[in-house]
Amino acid sequence: xxxxxxxxxxxxxxxxxxxxxxxxxxxxxxxxxxxxxxxxxxxxxxxxxxxxxxxxxxxxxxxxxxxxxxxxxxxxxxxxxxxxxxxxxxxxxxxxxxxxxxxxxxxxxxxxxxxxxxxxxxxxxxxxxxxxxxxxxxxxxxxxxxxxxxxxxxxxxxxxxxxxxxxxxxxxxxxxxxxxxxxxxxxxxxxxxxxxxxxxxxxxxxxxxxxxxxxxxxxxxxxxxxxxxxxxxxxxxxxxxxxxxxxxxxxxxxx
Length: 255
Fold this sequence. Notes:
This protein is mostly helical. It has helices spanning 2-15, 19-26, 31-36, 40-83, 87-95, 102-119, 124-128, 131-150, 154-186, 191-246. The chain has one domain (2-13, 26-246). The chain is built from ten helices and no strands.
């Protein structure tokens, strides 16, 4: 309905004014004119949208790089861990991985939990939790922590995708309000009176959508990618639990 009102106002203004002055008046529909003639409210709306956009693109780029790095290293890290014949060498390999590599962190937490439980055999710790339960608790905490790290920035992307169109709509409404005020003050609906506010309203709508659409696309993409990584976390953690609790993976044939 707001868009129909804007189109009708622009059409009426065009029909009511001479074509000679229309060319000059239409220049007021541009972005530069909007920046030069903004009031406090419209400038605040624009600043909020710019901050939203910068944050959304920042988290998009950071998460994209992070996911690409994790996915490129995941199979190699997991395969090397299981192919290393000596458990101590496998743990040493995990310790050599970068701090932001999640699979090595999960394996190290599991190994530390198993070693801690073994050192305290005969204590109240062993009486309260058997080896399997203690390792399982450590793995759950590690998987939860690494999963939370993957979700860093997704809340911002979801918030921007959901609210940016409405922030832009606020700028749209404010522009229409100024257009109506100009019509009331001048007593004319000519394009001279409404071109600036109508241009501001349309630009704010476009900016709001331009901020929201990439954020929504990025959010949906990272949710899907993270779902695959979560599945790898769970599979790796399950195998680690079997290995450190029983001494072998499920399906592994001892020689």
